[in-house]
Amino acid sequence: MDYINEKLQEFNNYLKNRKVAIIGLGVSNIPLIEYLHKLNSIVTVFDSKEMDKIDSQIIERIMNYGMSYSFGEKYLEKLVGFDIIFRSPSCLPIVPELVKEAQRGAIITTEIEMVIELAPCLVIGVTGSDGKTTTTTLIHEILKQDGYNCYLGGNIGTPLFTKVKDMKPEDIVVLELSSFQLMNMKISPKISVITNITPNHLNIHTDMEEYVEAKKNIFKYQDENGILILNYDNEITKEFEKETKGKVIFFSSKSKIRDGYIVDDGKIKICENGLRRHVFDTRNMILRGVHNFENACCAISATKDLVKKESVDTVLTEFKGVEHRLELVKETKTRIKWYNDSVSSSPTRTIAGLNAFALKNIVLIAGGYDKNLDYSVLAKPIIDNCKSLILLGQTSEKIEKAVNMEIKKTKNNFPIYKCKDLKDAVEIANKIAVRGDIVLFSPASASFDMFKNFSERGDIFKSYVNEIVK
Length: 470
What we know:
By secondary structure, this protein is an alpha/beta fold. The protein is built from 16 helices and 20 strands. The protein folds into three domains: 15-109, Rossmann fold; 113-318, UDP-N-acetylmuramoyl-L-alanine:D-glutamate ligase, CATH 3.40.1190.10; 327-465, Mur ligase, C-terminal domain (Protein-Tyrosine Phosphatase, Chain A), CATH 3.90.190.20.
């Protein structure tokens, strides 16, 4: 007998002939248009872009289905009287129009929250300031290697709400969850991972407290059967143990913890009642850097009761990494290596990237969109690991000021180059790099001053390297 998801059937019945708002025509919400149309929901689509800036095929579909719409600067003025509102992650629940509708009685949710609510199977969620995508991908690959039918979604993969109908109880959903997706979420995955928490997105969140509170929702609604995997070395995440109802598994690369997983002397070990046992030798990993060994600890922790050790060993040995994350773009005849780390949109990410290399011969290209972050923490790692610095974008002055203050302390001669764009940066790096150097593009900043997202930024960097570097 075929499995019937009764919760999904009930939700679909609720949506029929209801007034439904879709806010934001991003990747996650577009499949909802088709889905809701088939259910005969009364849909209005909202987006901050003007109509001529939206994909014409999407506009054509909205028109063909006879859906109402509101676009442009004051697009939320018509957000009144809806039964349920699907917001995009970029439309925060603190927006006044959303608050007002919630107070009136509308259900405010997201595509990904409904996936967690309606999936008939185990859901594993991953969040954190750094390492989310690599950790999520590792978990997904380990489960697939072991034979599970898995669904990958959230910040990566594909929108999953329309896939819930295909899910079976024996399947597993693996989600990468951002703070924007977690805000106001009222349900948590059964297995949750928080890689770390450091200041991020403070140009959008009201303050650090709001950012941290959003992250907490990944475990806040777990029961005593929930599992929460936490970074013991991060002061913020370490304290979450006090607030959880379920089981906590710690990981660490700095401490010999009593229970959990550690990175110790180049090996991943499990600690049980203070006794340590070898699990995996990190020398067998293609991924480099302590931060990636920590990501591996998270993946092992999340899958420990689900898979065979052989599946973990195979994936950790063969996994080459995710694009734009310390990605080797080119090695020249003179052994100059060019790395694309475009995903690094905060100082902590770039510091992790710098620490991944043993030799202190890095030509660093950094700078980009300003998220109101503190760049003073980046100065010493740059001086300690790099031989020169190339800066571009909005944050270039902040980074330069921080590094110059560190130079005054150490009295080092440290060359800093300013450039107008990314192509100029690659050309400068190509001139100053010598045999055996590493050229690392790790911006420590977001991409939005010059690019659509970090993926576009990384792709353009790679194209310039392949064009300019011989």
